């Protein structure tokens, strides 16, 4: 009489091994190919050159950020020691439900403080108004008027889509030759460098910010944005929208005299 049939198992308890089922095949789809990294150099000389190349890349990546720090260090001020300047430029920083974000509110608070102290006469608010349902300059204007800055002393730039655009338009469209710039501390150096490249003599006030997720994001972003800033300063591209000259700043200054 034949003995009991052997059962294939994968452990001492005799658990049956499940037969391998064929992998389903999807017509026209071969699957993703595994990512293959380049092979590491096998010789000492090859490894040395790879390390040198990596070091060169790191230095090149940090050059723009170093340029910003070195070239703007002597032009940073606070609301307490900012020189008297006719115009302040406040850069947009996003809206929350149609109202200035906390970061933007801090910038506007600094501008209102300078106005009340008699250190500035006109505020140029520059931001994004590329959609009908998103209007940074008008939200900034409303905030400033609610904090004591007369509407006739506020000028709006509705095409400040990025820092370079805002600086170029301040000079070419609104005729600003000198200004105090107001932004967060992690952004103000880039604003100073770009406005100088655009022909605006400026000092910068970097308002303090709470070290939250946005703060860390902003600081990290500036490392990469420094590269674009260097290219903008060298090649001086036209802003996304230039348009005709506007005389709002001149008229606002006339009411202050």
Largest beta-sheet characterization: 6 strands, parallel
Coarse shape: elongated
CATH architecture: 3-Layer(aba) Sandwich
Give the N-to-C terminal Cα separation. Answer: 119 Å
- Which segments are poorly predicted (pLDDT under 50) over 5 or more consecutive residues? 4-18
Overall average residue pLDDT: 84
Main sheet: strand order: 1-8-7-2-5-6
The number of domains is 1
What is the number of E strands? 8
CA radius of gyration: 29 Å
Write the H/E string, N to C: HEEEEHEHEHEHEHH
The proportion of strand residues reads 5-15%
Task: Describe the structure concisely.
By secondary structure, the protein is an alpha/beta fold.
Describe the protein.
- By secondary structure, the protein is of the alpha/beta class.
- The protein has a single domain (71-256), classed as Rossmann fold.
- The chain is built from seven helices and eight strands.
- It has helices at residues 44-72, 102-116, 136-146, 163-172, 188-197, 213-235, 248-256, and strands at residues 76-77, 87-91, 95-96, 99-100, 122-126, 154-157, 178-184, 201-207.
- The strands form two sheets. The protein has a six-stranded parallel beta sheet with strand order 1-8-7-2-5-6, sandwiched between helices.
- A hairpin with a 2-residue loop joins strand 3 (95-96) and strand 4.
- Helix 1 packs across helix 6 (213-235) and helix 5 packs parallel to helix 6.
- Mean pLDDT is 84; it is low at 4-18.
